[in-house]
Each structure stands twice: as C-alpha cells, then as structure tokens.
Design a protein that fits this description.
- With 457 residues, the chain is α+β, with helices and mostly antiparallel strands.
- It folds into 3 domains: 129 residues, no CATH class; 128 residues, no CATH class; 68 residues, Orthogonal Bundle (Arc Repressor Mutant, subunit A), CATH 1.10.10.60.
- 49% of the residues lie in helices and 7% in strands.
- The strands form 3 sheets. Strands 3-2-5-6 form a 4-stranded mixed sheet. Strands 1-4 form a two-stranded antiparallel ribbon. The chain has a two-stranded antiparallel ribbon with strand order 7-8.
- About 10% of the residues have low confidence.
Length: 457
C-alpha cells in the first residue's frame, strides 16, 4: 500500500450558526417588552438605526415631498392592519391615573410607625426589624445574637419586636409559623389551650389530615378537633402575602391579541411597545459620497448590514408570531367559541407542519409569550397540552381532564371525599380513559389535597 500526501476535493454540507442567525433566533424568543429593551440597546450601539416618527411599519420610510404612491401601494396602505400592526391612532388613558406599584409591606408598616411616639433609637430599631422581615413576614433571627450585633440590650430589641407584632397585618414579626398563628388568635380573642396545643404540637398532623390520630392523642372528639382546625384555616400563615415589592412584575403585556369581529377571529400583533426602525438617510448619503475614506465606508457598511438584519429579524418575528396565532385560531376555534372544556390537545409538531417550519422555531416563538383572547389572557404554551383518548378514540386535552377532576371534587361530599381510584372510575364513566396515577398527577398539579386531607368530620 502506497503511503503519502495527496490533495483531494471533497464536497460536504454543513449547518453553520452565523452571528446573524443567532441574533435572529434571540430576537424571536424575546417578549414585546424585552424586544423594546433590546432595540434601545441597539440604538445606542448602531448609529445607522433610527426610530421612525409617525405610524410607519418597521423598515419603511415616509414619502419625500412631492412623491406619489402607485395605485397598488395606495391599496396596501389603505389596509388598517399590516399582519397585525394597527396603524390608526389610539387613545390612551393618562398614566397619572395609575399607581406605579402596590404598596410594599415595608411601606405599610413604616406608615403605621408615624402614629406612635418612638424615640430615635426605638424608631431605628423598628425600621431595622421591618427591613429584615422575610418573604412570609417573619423575623426569624435570634434576639440575643441580633442585639449583640446591634450593640443594644436583648430586652430592648425584644420589646421592639413585640411592638412590631402589634401592628397590622396580624401575625407580622413572628419568629415562625406557630407564633404567627398564636399572635393572630390572641388578637382575635380566640386563643384557647386546645388551639395552642394544636399549634405547638400537631401542625404537621393537621397538614396531613390525621385528625383521628390527634383526637385519640388528646382524648377529644374528632368533631371538636375539626371545629378547631376550621378556626386555624381562617388564619393567614403568611402575613406578608398580598403586598407588593420593588422586584416583582406588576403586569403582563400580551404579545398577541385575538379579537372577535362579526363571528370571525382577528389576530393582531401587539407592537405598542416596539419602536419602528429604519436606516438613517444621513449615513446612506455618506456611504455614497466618493470623498468618504475607506475606514469610514467600511464602518458604515458593517453597521448598515447589521441594521438591515435587525430590522429583518424583527419583521420575521412578527410574521412568525402572526402565523402561529392564526394556526391556533384555526385549530382551537371550539375553545374560543365555547370555553376551556373544548380545548384540543396540541403539540409543536402539529403547528410546525402547518407552517412548514421546524418544531424548534415554534418552541422559541411561543416561549414566555402571552396572548389575549376573548376567553382571557393565556400563555401561548397553554394551547400546547398533552391529551388522553376518550371512548370514541378522540384526543382530549389534559386541561379538559383537569377541569373535569376539579368539577367532580367540587361536588363531592366533604365527609366522604373521592379517592383517586374513584375519581378515575367517574372520569371513565364520562368517557375519559385515564389511569389512577394520571389522576393523582393532575390533582397534585392543581394543588388539590388527597382524599384523606380533604375529609371533614
């Protein structure tokens, strides 16, 4: 066998992920607000990009003075919607009518401090305690260790913590859950020795629904235990719940809108938060100027290519979202007409085949995005649910099965709640072929307790 060096030509196919393709994929995954932030960053980095003044679509330019539109362009611009882009002027309520965020727990508590005559040191300690409450509204730190760090006496800090516990909401400033519940009962004048013992010794058993075990242990009737447990269920285990914070998201902006007009569903891409982009005419003239040096021309050409690609990627994102929403309207028409009970099981492959794109494109496009429908606001992923077969062999969405489980449990006798196997049997009577373990999985996903925990005496 001859061994040596040779030169050969070989033709192969490779899929190369270019920077432009990565950028397009990234833009496709962005929500409306994230895309707005991304555009603001690009406007700072690329001097060729400009925001279009007026109601023009991305990448379009206003007419020059004296320029006339051809007839086909007149017809195009007379349409009030460009794949979901509403061009008409809309009236918006002034932002002064809305609060920027709900009051935080810290704001609420500090507001109450104003009604008490506290010394400067007491006010400082009170603000320290308020500022160190956890997400539940507890102050879980050791009084002795905290006092040592603050260089104050433990008794002084303890008095401040006890003072905070007198404020609203009830239970605030407690060390843990048992103390939180006891504080609330004491404020309501409902604290009894039995309730205190249930809280300090049997909270875990109460959570697991083991009321018979508790009754036997305390030598009390199970009806009496049930009565006291009902009182505990009226208390708030997390006093901080319901208050805002500076970190939380205040609202959801839908990326797509579906409106029903004359028995037809119209898809609109929500672009109110997305500026329309174009390329600066000043730089177009500069690149065509023969007196421009090569470095300047090379810089402008590079930025021009980037600008065009960004505009194209944003437009492609809009078109992709619009097409996906139209397919959802077509496939989930019964859901839009009649409600959740008619939601069909759907996977990415079904939509990808209709659009003749890859499943990963659909997956990226629907990620973290919401759609406003006549039935309410839903994440796009809501429409892509697994399903089970009914007796007729037809697929039924898991959301429909969950609703059926929830309805059956809502109508059950609380003294004789249905087990998962009984739920399975009842669903099969309704024509839904489902395994007991699947019922258990759906029940847990909906946060519904087991039959032993739901049982009342």
């Amino acid at each position: 066998m001859k061994i040596g060096y040779q030169l050969n030509m070989l033709q192969t196919q490779k899929l190369i992920m270019t920077p432009e393709l990565r950028q397009a994929i990234n833009i496709l995954q962005l929500t409306a607000l994230e895309l707005n932030n991304y555009i603001q960053e690009q406007l700072l980095e690329n001097p060729l990009l400009e925001i279009v003044d007026g109601n023009f679509a991305a990448g379009s330019e206003p007419l020059e003075e004296g320029e006339k539109m051809e007839p086909e362009w007149k017809e195009y611009f007379s349409d009030a919607s460009d794949l979901g882009y509403p061009w008409e002027k809309r009236e918006y309520l002034p932002f002064e009518q809305f609060i920027s965020r709900t009051p935080s727990l810290e704001d609420f508590l500090e507001e109450q401090l104003r009604f008490f005559k506290l010394s400067e040191e007491e006010l400082t300690l009170a603000r320290f305690v308020i500022g160190n409450l956890d997400n539940c509204g507890y102050f879980p730190f050791s009084i002795e260790e905290t006092a040592l760090v603050l260089e104050v006496s433990p008794d002084k800090l303890r008095r401040i913590v006890e003072f905070i516990q007198t404020l609203e909401p009830d239970g605030i400033g407690a060390k843990d859950l048992p103390e939180c519940l006891i504080i609330q009962l004491r404020k309501k004048n409902l604290l009894t020795p039995l309730l205190e013992e249930l809280i300090t010794k049997y909270l875990k058993d109460i959570g697991q629904g083991k009321l018979s075990k508790i009754a036997n242990s305390l030598n009390v009737s199970i009806e009496e235990i049930q009565k006291n447990v009902d009182i505990l269920k009226t208390l708030n285990p997390k006093p901080a719940s319901g208050f805002g914070s500076n970190q939380e998201t205040r609202f959801i902006v839908p990326d797509l809108l579906i409106e029903k007009i004359d028995n037809e569903y119209i898809v609109l891409v929500n672009d109110n938060y997305i500026p329309r982009l174009t390329v600066s005419n000043a730089y177009k003239e500069l690149i065509n100027n023969s007196q421009s040096d090569e470095l300047t021309r090379a810089f402008i050409e590079r930025k021009l290519h980037s600008a065009h690609w960004i505009i194209k990627s944003i437009e492609q994102r809009r078109i992709t979202l619009y097409k996906i929403a139209n397919v959802l309207v077509e496939l989930q028409r019964d859901f839009l007409d009649k409600g959740k009970a008619y939601l069909l099981p759907l996977n990415l492959k079904d939509v990808a085949q209709k659009l003749e794109v890859h499943e990963s494109t659909v997956s990226r496009a629907i990620a973290n995005k919401y759609i406003q429908t006549p039935r309410g606001l839903f994440p796009l992923k809501y429409f892509f649910s697994s399903g089970i077969n009914n007796k007729a062999g037809q697929k039924v969405s898991s959301e429909v099965v969950k609703k059926a489980i929830k309805d059956i449990i809502a109508a059950e006798d609380p003294k004789e709640p249905y087990s998962d196997q009984m739920l399975c049997n009842l669903l099969q009577q309704k024509g839904l072929k489902i395994a007991r373990r699947t019922v258990s999985k759906y029940r847990e996903k909906m946060g519904i307790l087991s039959s032993s925990q739901r049982k009342r005496y």
